[in-house]
Amino acid sequence: MPAPVASLRVPPARQGPGPIPAALVDVLALSIARRGAGALPGDRLAPGVGSGTELAQLRPYALGDDVRQLDPAASARTGVPHVRLQVPERILTTWLVLDLSASMAFGTGERLKSDVAEGVAHVVGRAATRHGGRLAVMTAGGPEKMLPPRGGPHARIGLRRLLAEGVAVDGAADRGLRPVLHKTGRLARQPGLVVVVSDFRGSLEWRKPLRALGARHRVLAVEIRDPREERLEPAGRLALVDPESGRLIEVDTSRRGLRERFAAAAAEERANVAAELRAAAAHHVVLSTSGDWLRALGRALR
Q1: Containing domain of residue 78, as a range?
Q2: Fewer CB atoms inside 10 A, N or C side of the chain?
């Protein structure tokens, strides 16, 4: 039976990311730029000369030079008009890879995983455009969409519109993170910041392209978890549906051995994800649907 065509929907249980104070977002934006990217605009130098803050050359004025670049001190000292030529600043581009797979619509805490991802995306969007930088967005896990690198409010408006579309429907075709990370690597030619927001469920097929990205860019991997994905409560017989495959599984959660095996398998899976993210030189942040995700993000980026 062919997989259904991927489409997006707003989860019925959507709560949204909750309050995001502007002052706290500004602090987090600076933390992301410093820790994740390692450099703010102005810290990275582009070849040639142009508009910037780093002095490249001081020379006598020539007809056609921009008079705004006249250097008063050098002109007064030599008696000849001199102009300053600067090394141009290279704008930092942030690539946001957002997982919209059906599993992101799950959540048993204060909100869904997609709600937390939405909040993180807003913070990243603010960080990316804070100092004149640009934001590009790639989606995975559903219809693969792209917002090309843009700066200013237009970038954040496009991001808000994309987030409002929701996540993939249950059982929708999901190619995973791998092809989107490959595409990001091809498009992101200049070193920058890549932020991957996902629950990192399923296979580890994303590890090779993520390592390739980590070799050229700073990578921030934000993993979103739900407590019920790590342990089962003794609630008797349950009928569970895998949102990405549509497979139905019936389990008896009153069996202690089953709960212990589930917890061990879940812990092993998360440990493997963490190991692969370390191998990709990614800064790994874990957030939960339970508790204050914004404060947890702030603590992780200090």
Answers
A1: 54-87
A2: N
